[in-house]
Amino acid sequence: MSQSTVAKRYTQALFETAKDANIVNEVSADLAEFSKVLAGTPELLTLLSAPKVSVERKKQMISELFAGAQPAVINVLALLVERKRFNEVTDVVVEFDRLADDAKGVAKATVFSTRALTDEEHAEISAAFAKRVNKDSLIIDNVIDESLIGGIRVQIGNDIFDSSVKGKLARLENTLIG
User: Side-chain half-sphere of 140: how many Cα atoms within 13 Å?
Assistant: First the structure.
């Protein structure tokens, strides 16, 4: 997913601030909570983006609603409001999550399989595929897809590793038909 240049700049500044203060996990948790609040009340995003509401009132609402959050998070949210860039906030949350994962040597992966994976399979897949994308480990989201017939398909970012029976049959068909 492509993020805007503006969101990347705000996120990079927030990440550097959090890293310097050694609060990356806390900022990440605050942003995750903020994201949940936005998902649960989409009117909040509309309100904080509304031109009829003054910038000062919006900043006051952010301060009151997220009083327990890290000051760096509140400052970035206030800055987005001030610069009329609050529509970039979801991209900032996603990009910060990616930067935090990169710093930890972790990547998110979606593993498609015909059945739920066991803990042992999770560990084996994480170890095997993390090396392929130069990470220490993977956070795996297992999706059941019975159309695969057998095997697994692993998606890590834009990379797809397909060792499913369905994928092998499709590749064989392409080879035979041309």
Answer: 26
